[in-house]
Write a structure and sequence with these properties.
Strands 1-2-3-4-5-7-6 form a seven-stranded mixed beta sheet, with helices on both faces. The protein contains six helices and seven strands; from the N terminus they run βααααβββαβαββ. The protein is an alpha+beta fold.
């Protein structure tokens, strides 16, 4: 049975696990549909989420605390192993919150873990009085779109994110009214 744990404050011990999950997600997702090469995905994932960077950030909590400011983390723990995490971020739009990040490690996907985590997060959002939640994800990620639709997200719209000077990523934006 998977247990959802709410982190009350940032814990540096989660940094390496969060980075491993994000790196795995980028390396498996970005090269799909020829958006960028596998080599470029590895390069960008290393730049953003390398193990060395995670250790450095763990040591420099002051700079990382700036990153986590205004965000709420919902790690998904299975038998003391971090297998996924959802991150919420305040939006400028009143009454709305962004699902800033939602990742489940590849080997734990399609077992109901993501649904359990998302239901926990949506319950939290409703209790806090938000009227809507927004999510952006890579446009070629059909599985993500089906997942969010299953949970009641609607209004898919195309968007673009400048990942670096040379890389533009096509995104889908969806929302769920609560």
């Amino acid at each position: 049975m998977t247990e959802v744990v709410r982190v009350e404050g940032f814990r540096s011990s989660f940094v390496p696990g969060l980075f491993r999950i994000k790196r795995e997600s980028w390396v498996t997702t970005l090269p799909c549909k020829g958006l960028i090469s596998q080599e470029k995905a590895e390069e960008l994932a290393h730049l953003y989420f390398s193990r060395d960077q995670a250790k450095t950030i763990s040591r420099r909590l002051d700079s990382f605390k700036e990153y986590v400011k205004g965000k709420q983390f919902f790690p998904l723990i299975l038998e003391k192993t971090l297998i996924g995490c959802a991150v919420l971020k305040e939006m400028d739009q009143a009454g709305s919150i962004e699902l800033y990040s939602f990742d489940i490690r590849k080997k734990y996907r399609r077992n109901g873990h993501g649904t359990q985590l998302m239901k926990h997060v949506l319950s939290y959002i409703q209790k806090k009085g938000y009227q809507s939640v927004h999510v952006w994800f890579f446009s070629h990620n059909v599985a993500a779109q089906k997942f969010y639709e299953m949970l009641g997200f609607t209004h898919p719209e195309e968007d673009t994110w400048r990942m670096s000077d040379s890389v533009l990523i096509d995104l889908i934006h969806m929302r769920k009214d609560l």
